[in-house]
Write a structure and sequence with these properties.
The chain is mostly helical. The chain has helices spanning about 5-25, 30-50, 55-75, 75-95, 105-110, 120-130, 135-140, 145-165, 170-175, 180-195, 200-215, 220-235, 260-275, 280-290, 300-315, 320-330, 335-340, 345-350, 355-365, 370-380, 385-400; strands spanning about 240, 245. About 40% of the residues are buried.
Length: about 400
């Protein structure tokens, strides 16, 4: 479905405009509300008047006017008038300004990683504030309901205001202290961008932020490791193309982007030279082995299993456990894969779609056809995209006879 001009501009400018508005007011929720008002105004006016020459300037101006209106209603005029006049002058100047606005998205990301924010809310708060992702879209990735995610975000924004957090980029030497949650958020955005038929705008935003972090923190190997990981994955087309799901194992390596893979290898080498191994470097190394299929047809599953063992030692996430089990099944050890899956916490895997897809594959490889069919059914029921659901049901049909 084609996007409207307002939707296109919103996707392109959301994070930048929210960061600009929040950096002035210090109130993230207010900045989001003001921009939402501006987007609604654009939906009403642009179809009749046409897209303005500087659409981002138009949105910023209207959003600032909305903020001014709210401030006037809240504040005593004699105390707030000077600030309101200055804000009004800035808003009017922005309307016809052609120059690009300063990009303060990194400052907003770092503000959202403030220690005052609960660790479980930092990544979704960044994804909503900087990339405009909704609670409904993020909730499945964090294994919570949309309502729970909404409450988590509201509490986090209130804490930002209460802590008086400044929306600014810290000095490079201070960046390392807040880097880990920012890297997690960028990777979460990138992962969400690969969940459909190529959300190019979200993928490009994640890559842009990854490059910026690697540039600003050249002494932090995980920043380069994350960029390498995203480049390896983005070198391949989305597994969902033209409404069909094509697993990576069945893709033609000749169609992969060689330039992106070369850049990824360079980033991974740069990270390794710093001598501090981390999660993103190991995940990038796993993708490097997969990427080697464009040179050699056979995948080195032994190397992948060794890398997953190292990854589990430092980041034993549910995703890492499931991916290692998949590698066991792919390397001809389906019973070991099933045993590894059986050892996982039932509460964590109940609604984890990759778990059931991996379990189905391992059971089928082990010759346990009836249980494989049941697992494929459950995986299909948890799949969000219809193309993935269709593919899983086709696999189920093969193991139901």
């Amino acid at each position: 479905m084609a996007w409207s001009p307002v939707e296109t501009e919103a996707r392109r400018a959301y994070g930048r405009l929210v960061a600009l508005l929040a950096s002035r007011s210090g109130d993230l929720a207010e900045a989001e509300d003001a921009l939402a008002d501006a987007l609604l105004a654009a939906l009403e006016r642009w179809p009749a008047t046409g897209i303005p020459a500087n659409p981002q300037g138009w949105l910023l101006t209207v959003a600032r006017r909305r903020s001014i209106d709210r401030a006037r209603r809240r504040a005593h005029a004699d105390l707030a008038q000077a600030e309101l006049v200055r804000m009004q002058e800035e808003a009017e100047a922005a309307m016809n300004e052609d120059a690009a606005y300063p990009d303060q998205r990194l400052g907003l990301l770092l503000a959202c990683s403030h220690p005052a924010i609960d660790a479980g809310a930092r990544t979704p708060l960044m994804l909503q504030a900087v990339l405009g992702l909704t609670a409904e879209r993020m909730a499945p990735a964090f294994l919570v309901s949309a309502a729970a995610m909404t409450k988590r975000l509201v509490r986090a924004k209130a804490k930002l205001i209460g802590a008086g957090v400044r929306f600014e980029t810290p000095d490079p030497e201070k960046l390392a202290d807040r880097l880990e949650p920012v890297l997690d958020a960028v990777y979460a955005a990138f992962t969400l961008s690969r969940g459909g038929e190529g959300d190019n705008s979200l993928q490009h935003e994640a890559l842009w932020l990854g490059r910026l972090l690697a540039e600003l923190a050249p002494g932090e190997p995980e920043a380069s490791g994350l960029l390498a990981l995203m480049l390896f994955v983005s070198a391949r087309p989305s597994p969902i193309q033209a409404g069909h799901y094509i697993p990576v194992s069945r893709q033609d390596p000749a169609s992969w982007d060689a330039a992106s893979m070369i850049e990824a290898e360079q980033c991974l080498r740069q990270a390794s030279r710093l001598g501090r191994l981390g999660r993103f470097q190991l995940e990038a190394a796993i993708q490097a082995v997969h990427a080697d299929r464009h040179r050699h047809p056979a995948t080195n599953w032994t190397a992948i299993l060794d890398l997953y063992n190292g990854l589990l030692a430092i980041a034993p996430t549910i995703g890492s456990h499931v991916s290692r089990a998949a590698a066991l099944a792919q390397s001809g050890l389906p019973l070991a894969a099933i045993q590894a899956l059986d050892a996982l916490d039932p509460g964590l895997i109940k609604a984890h779609q990759p778990y059931w897809a991996t379990r189905a594959f391992a059971l089928a490889a082990a010759g346990v056809q009836a249980e494989a069919a049941d697992a494929y059914t459950r995986a299909a029921g948890l799949a969000e995209h219809p193309a993935i659901r269709t593919w899983l049901l086709s696999q189920r049909a093969q193991h139901s006879n």
